[in-house]
Design goal:
The chain is an alpha+beta fold. The chain has 3 domains: 43 residues; 133 residues, Sandwich (Immunoglobulin-like); 143 residues, C2 domain (Immunoglobulin-like). 25% of the residues lie in helices and 32% in strands. A hairpin with a 2-residue loop joins strand 11 and strand 12. The two termini are 57 Å apart. Bound molecules: 2-acetamido-2-deoxy-beta-D-glucopyranose (4 copies) and calcium ion. Calcium ion binds next to loops.
């Protein structure tokens, strides 16, 4: 039925014609190369040897470059533990960013000089006033050794408003002198981090980030107006979109060594499915001495971004172990067909920071009483990097999160 003669004939003749036409232009090209080789006053084997040598040198170069890249990422990894803090973080002032290694005063990212920023901070009557004053010695992003800088300012994790300064053309020492006001109450202020990102404007391409400052606002003494220069840090690898929030209740009974975790509910979860809804469930995991220890999970809630779980899990954790344990809570989207995606994660324990540390400390200082609290989810890459579990083998070239 398919072999209707006129059509197959036409087809066949057409394809043979095509075949001729493709082999046609190749012959002259080969001929040309042949002629060229004949013109070179060297024997054929010598030409081939030279060609092979060039290919070999090129390969050696590629291997060297690859090896260098690997070394660099290893070095970066080794630096990490310096950023960690101990339980003394409970004292308040030392809570500077374990989770945000690129916070201003860390020595993270000093390999590249990105420049400095002069800012001011003032808090009065439910208003945070951020001054972007001036920048100096900014890294040049454009050919010609200059940049077109401007600054974006916002608060996280509740990213309500993003302000931007004007763009200053062709300078690495701009004077901005702009003030931005955020309406925020004292309790929210304690949970917030201010982010100041310096960008290079480009008319026809993506704007380049020059560097950023991140300041946790709970460490600041608001009795004075703050005005200071800080070196810009490497931009955070984890752009904090709003991943959602989770509410947990924790209870610890030291005498019986029982830790009870109730996963109550989550809200405003980031949607992972194309339809705009997710099928979330929560994993509750205990890590002891950086090794995975115990794990439980809730049921999957179908098609919602605001799941109500109300599931309780009890673990045996002795009083001696509770000092060394970390509670990792992660929210996942259940997918029937593909691998499940992590929506977000947090961890609590003596090494946690901010809100999470406070919750853990509240639990320990109120034995036998359930303490409930909401937490903003963080990206799971960010939390995993902070936790640095012992057995996780990371190969930098394959891990696309780096
Ligand atoms: C907390 O700080 C106070 C004084 O600032 C100090 O005396 C105390 O030892 C600190 N506690 C811890 C646990 O570091
Ligand atoms: C904010 O945190 C500081 C120190 O961490 C504390 O002294 C203050 O009471 C907190 N304020 C509120 C409203 O939570
Ligand atoms: C949550 O769970 C507890 C115990 O399992 C139960 O007593 C309570 O009624 C539940 N709450 C709701 C609102 O379902
Ligand atoms: C907390 O950090 C310290 C110092 O970095 C580390 O030695 C300790 O093992 C950590 N504790 C936990 C529970 O991971
Ligand atoms: Ca530019």
């Amino acid at each position: 039925m398919v072999t209707k003669t006129p059509i197959t004939k036409g087809h066949a003749s057409h394809s043979t014609f095509k075949g001729n036409s493709t082999t046609g232009p190749v012959n002259p090209v080969l001929g040309f190369i042949d002629q060229l080789l004949n013109k070179i006053p060297l024997p054929r084997w010598a030409i081939y040897a030279i060609f092979a040598a060039i290919v070999f040198i090129f390969l050696v170069c590629v291997i060297c470059i690859c090896a260098k890249c690997c070394c660099k990422s290893k070095k970066k990894k080794k630096k990490k533990p310096d950023d960690e803090i101990s339980i003394q973080g409970l004292n308040g002032s030392t809570t500077t960013a374990l989770v945000q290694p690129s916070s201003g005063d860390g020595n993270y990212g000093t390999t590249k000089n990105r420049g400095r920023l002069l800012y001011s901070l003032e808090y009065k009557t439910d208003e945070l006033i951020v001054g972007i004053k001036q920048a100096a010695a900014l890294a040049a992003m454009d050919t010609g050794g200059t940049s077109d800088p401007y600054v974006k300012v916002y608060l996280t994790p509740k990213k309500s408003k993003t302000f931007e300064t004007q763009v200053y053309r062709k300078t690495v020492n701009p004077t901005f002198n702009e003030l931005f006001k955020f309406k925020i109450d004292k309790a929210d202020l304690n949970e917030s981090t201010i982010v100041m990102k310096v960008f290079d404007f480009n008319r026809f391409s993506k704007h380049d980030i020059i560097g950023e400052l991140r300041l946790e606002l709970n460490t600041i003494d608001w009795n004075h107006v703050i005005e200071e220069w800080k070196d810009l840090s490497e931009p955070s690898k984890f752009e904090e979109g709003n991943l959602g929030e989770i509410c947990l209740s924790l209870r610890y009974v030291p005498t019986s060594g029982k830790l009870t975790v109730v996963v109550l509910e989550a809200k405003d979860l980031k949607s992972m499915d194309p339809g705009g809804l997710s099928d979330p469930y929560t994993k509750v995991q205990l890590v002891l001495d950086r090794k995975k220890w115990k794990r439980k999970k809730t049921a999957v809630k179908k098609c919602t971004l605001n799941p109500y779980f109300n599931e309780s899990f009890t673990f045996d954790v002795s009083f001696e172990q509770i000092q060394r344990v970390q509670l990792v809570i992660s929210v996942w989207d259940h997918d029937k067909l593909t691998r499940n995606d992590a929506i977000g994660k947090i961890f609590l324990g003596c090494n946690a920071t901010g809100n999470q540390l406070r919750h853990w400390a509240d639990m320990l200082s109120n034995p036998r009483r359930p303490m409930a609290q909401w937490h903003h989810l963080l990206s799971s890459e960010q939390v995993d990097q902070t936790l640095q579990l012992k057995h996780t083998v990371r190969i930098p070239l394959i891990n696309k999160n780096f």
